């Protein structure tokens, strides 16, 4: 099964004062850590789903992804600041130190919080919610491990859950999506 490794999250959160939704994963996978940015596994559907959600092309480079998130009013970070983990196995996570999302919520007081998958959701509820007044909405995971959800179904569910927050009070409300 492998040995535990202590991981300290090395990616900065991506957000600015215009961010309307915060999407929290659990912790970057081994592939994402090798790539150097969020959702770096080539089979993870995060970038396809979010691009479809906002009606933009799928970003490719890290710089394009950062610009895409900021231009789309999407903030991204993870629930875990550091932990012990075997490979990318969410089931093996232990000794969690949670991220301090107040860095984002202070600048963006009206931001809506979402978790990408069950592990992020349960970790959020256990480690962040007790010190926060912000419950998080659980999104179905974009991970390739979530084979029960195809990309089309994921996109529709993400649109249903996120659109009311992301597109409120905007000139282009994407009502035809």
How are the SSEs ordered, and which strands pair?
Elements: E1 5-8, E2 21-25, H1 30-35, H2 46-54, H3 62-71, E3 74-78, E4 80-85, E5 94-98, H4 102-107, E6 112-116, H5 118-127, E7 137-139, H6 151-166
Parallel strand pairs: 2-3, 2-6, 6-7
Antiparallel strand pairs: 1-4, 4-5
Helix pairs in contact: 2-6
Domain Uracil-DNA glycosylase-like: 12-159
InterPro entries: Hypoxan-DNA_Glyclase (IPR026353), Uracil-DNA_glycosylase-like (IPR005122), Uracil-DNA_glycosylase-like_sf (IPR036895)
Pfam family, one: UDG
Task: Offer a few descriptive terms.
177 residues, alpha/beta, Uracil-DNA Glycosylase, subunit E, 4-stranded parallel beta sheet, 3-stranded antiparallel beta sheet, 7 strands, 32% helix, 19% strand, globular, disordered C terminus
CATH topology: Uracil-DNA Glycosylase, subunit E
Tell me the total number of β-strands: 7
Radius of gyration (CA) equals: 15 Å
Separation of termini? Answer: 43 Å
Percentage beta strand: 15-25%
User: What average pLDDT do the residues reach?
Assistant: 93
Strands of the widest sheet, in order across it, are 3-2-6-7
| Principal-axes shape call | globular
The stretches of 5 or more residues where confidence is low (pLDDT under 50) are 170-177
Helix content: 25-40%
Instruction: Tell me the number of helical segments per DSSP (H or I, 4 or more residues long).
Output: 6
The first-level CATH class name? Alpha Beta
